[in-house]
Specification:
about 475 residues, 2 domains, two-stranded antiparallel ribbon, 19 helices, about 70% helix
Length: about 475
C-alpha cells in the first residue's frame, strides 16, 4: 500500500474533524480559520503584505474592537490577521522550501523567558492566569517569527515601515473624524480620561494610545531625510508632525518624555540628525506653546496636563504602593517570584485599597518581572536589554554610509525612550514594542547579509537636504 497517497486524504480528513470540533465550541472560529487559509493562499506571492497587514492590525486593534473571547483571551482584529500570516508562512514553506524558523540575536533570551514562565506554573497562584501570560508570550514569538521570515531584503523592511506609518496616520485621522461624529468617545471607559481632555484614540487607554503612536515618530522623520522625491520627503515630515500632535492629545507624560529621550539619543549619535532635531524642536516648542496658551482643543488640553503634572508624577501613592507590593511578593517568595499571572490575587495582602482600585498592576516592566519572575526573571530582562543593545551597535556599524543608517539610529531611539518610561509604566508583553523590535531585527539581519561576500548591498545614502 502506498502510504504517500493516503497522506493527503488523511490530512484533509483531520482538518475537517478539527473544524467540526471547533464549530461546536464557537462557530466563528472555523469560519475565521477557513477565511484565513484562503487569504493565506492569496498572500503566497506577496508575503510582505501579510506583514504589513499584521502590523497595521496590531496598531489598530484595541479592547473595544474585540469580536469574542476564548477563556480569558480576547480575539480582536489582530489575532485573525496573525493567523492568516502564519498560514501564509506555512504554505510558503511547504511549496517553496523556505525555512519556518530563523535565528535572531534576542531569540535565546526570549525563549528562556518563556521557559521560566512555564516552569513558574508549578507555583503560580492561578493556573489559568499563568497560562494566559504564556499564551501571550507565544503570540509574540509567533509574530516575530512571521516578521523575520518574510522581511528578508531592504525593500521588505521599507514596506513594513511604510505600513506602520500609514497605520499611525490612519489612527489619527479616524480619531479626529470619530470624535467629530461622536463615534469614538470612550472617555467613560477609562478613569484616566473620564474628566475630559485626554484622547483615547480608538478606545485605548490614553497612555497606551500615545505609546502606540510614539514608536514611529523618530523613524518617520528620519525616513523623510533619505527620500529623493520632495513630495515623499515633505509628506513624511508632515506625517511626523501629525502623528506627534495626535499622540499629544492623549496628555500622556510617558509619550512626551519618551519622544524627548529618543530624540536626544538620535541627536547625540549623528550630526545631521542633531541639526534637524533642533529645528523640529524649536518649531514644536513654538507650536506647543501657542496651543497650550490658547487652549487649542485636545492638543492644548493634553499639553497643559503634561506640563502641569510633571511635579506630581511620583508624589501620589499609586506607583509607590504597587512597587512596594512587587518588592513584598519578591521577598515573600524568597526571590523566586510568584510565577506567571496572579498579581491581582496576591495584591490584597499588601494593599487592600489598591486591590479594589483600577490601578492594580505593577506599573513598570522591571517591577513586574521582580514580582513574577524573581531573580531569574530580572536577570533575563537585563540580558535581553544587553543583547538588544549589542544588536543595535552592530546594525549601526553595518548600515553606515547607506540609506538604512537613518533607521539604524531612529528605530532603537524609540525603543530607548520606551524602555526609560517602562520603569514606571507598562508590562513585559505590551504592544507594539515587540513588533517594532522584530522589524528592527529584520533590518539587522539584512544589514549583516549585505556585508557578507555575495550579499546584496544596501544603497548608499545620497541625502541632499541640508
Amino acid at each position: 500500500m502506498n502510504l504517500g497517497r493516503l497522506a493527503v486524504p488523511a490530512v484533509v480528513l483531520g482538518v475537517q474533524v478539527l473544524l467540526l470540533a471547533l464549530f461546536v465550541v464557537d462557530w466563528r472560529v472555523p469560519v475565521v480559520l477557513t477565511a484565513g487559509f484562503l487569504i493565506g493562499v492569496v498572500l503566497l506571492d506577496r508575503p510582505v503584505w501579510a506583514v504589513g497587514g499584521m502590523l497595521a492590525a496590531r496598531l489598530l486593534s484595541t479592547g473595544t474592537t474585540s469580536f469574542f473571547t476564548i477563556g480569558k483571551i480576547s480575539i480582536g482584529l489582530f489575532e485573525p490577521v496573525l493567523l492568516v500570516a502564519l498560514i501564509a508562512l506555512g504554505l510558503r514553506a511547504v511549496f517553496s522550501g523556505m525555512p519556518l524558523w530563523r535565528s535572531w540575536p534576542w531569540q535565546p533570551v526570549f525563549l528562556a523567558l518563556m521557559g521560566w514562565s512555564v516552569i513558574g506554573l508549578a507555583w503560580c497562584t492561578k493556573m489559568s492566569d499563568g497560562a494566559k501570560e504564556i499564551v501571550t508570550l507565544g503570540v509574540i514569538l509567533g509574530t516575530a517569527t512571521v516578521i523575520l521570515a518574510f522581511l528578508r531584503t531592504w525593500e521588505d523592511v521599507k514596506v513594513a515601515i511604510w505600513a506602520w506609518i500609514a497605520a499611525c496616520v490612519s489612527i489619527g485621522i479616524l480619531a479626529i473624524f470619530g470624535d467629530a461624529l461622536g463615534l469614538t468617545d470612550y472617555g467613560s471607559q477609562w478613569q484616566a480620561s473620564a474628566s475630559g481632555g485626554r484622547e483615547t484614540g480608538l478606545g485605548q487607554q490614553p497612555n497606551w494610545f500615545a505609546m502606540n503612536l510614539m514608536f514611529v515618530v523618530h523613524t518617520c522623520a528620519a525616513f523623510a531625510l533619505v527620500q529623493k522625491r520632495p513630495i515623499l520627503r515633505w509628506g513624511l515630515l508632515l506625517a511626523t508632525l501629525f502623528v506627534f500632535f495626535s499622540m499629544m492629545t492623549s496628555g500622556s507624560r510617558g509619550g512626551a518624555y519618551s519622544i524627548v529621550i529618543g530624540g536626544m539619543l538620535v541627536a547625540l549619535g549623528q550630526p545631521l540628525f542633531r541639526k534637524w532635531f533642533l529645528r523640529l524642536g524649536v518649531a514644536g516648542t513654538i507650536f506647543f506653546g501657542l496651543a497650550a496658551a490658547g487652549d487649542l482643543g485636545d492638543i492644548g488640553k493634553g499639553l497643559n496636563r503634561i506640563s502641569s503634572n510633571i511635579d506630581v508624577l511620583f508624589t501620589r501613592d499609586i506607583r509607590g504602593l504597587n512597587w512596594a507590593a512587587c518588592i513584598g511578593m519578591f521577598n515573600d517568595s524568597n526571590g523566586l517570584g510568584i510565577g506567571p499571572g496572579g498579581y491581582i490575587d496576591n495584591l490584597q495582602k499588601y494593599s487592600d485599597w489598591l486591590y479594589h482600585s483600577v490601578y492594580r498592576y505593577p506599573h513598570g516592566i522591571f517591577w513586574g518581572q521582580l514580582a513574577h519572575g524573581g531573580v531569574v526573571g530580572v536577570l533575563l530582562l537585563v540580558a535581553l536589554v544587553v543583547v538588544i543593545s549589542r544588536m543595535t551597535m552592530q546594525t549601526i556599524r553595518d548600515t553606515k554610509g547607506t540609506e538604512a543608517e537613518v533607521l539604524a539610529w531612529a528605530m532603537p531611539a524609540s525603543m530607548a525612550g520606551y524602555f526609560a518610561w517602562s520603569f514606571v509604566e507598562f508590562s513585559l508583553d505590551e504592544k507594539p514594542f515587540w513588533e517594532w523590535l522584530a522589524v528592527y531585527t529584520a533590518l539587522h539581519l539584512v544589514a549583516r547579509r549585505s556585508r557578507e561576500p555575495g550579499g546584496t548591498p544596501i544603497p548608499a545614502w545620497t541625502f541632499s537636504l541640508k
